[in-house]
Amino acid sequence: MSRYTPEEKVKIARDPGRPGTADFIAALFTDFFEQRGDRLRGEDPSILGGIARFHDRPVTVIGHRKGKDLEENLRCNFGMPSPEGYRKAQRLMRQAEKFGRPVITFVDTPGAYPGKEAEERGQGEAIAQCLALMSALEVPTIAIVTGEGGSGGALALAAANRVLMLEHAVYSVLSPEGFASILWKDASRAGEACGVMKLTAQDLRRGGIVQGVLREPEEGAHTNWEAAFRTVDAALVKELAALDKLRGPALARQRYEMFRAMGQGLPPAGREEP
Question: Which of 14, 45, 127, 266 is the most buried (most CB within 10 A)?
Answer without folding.
Answer: 127
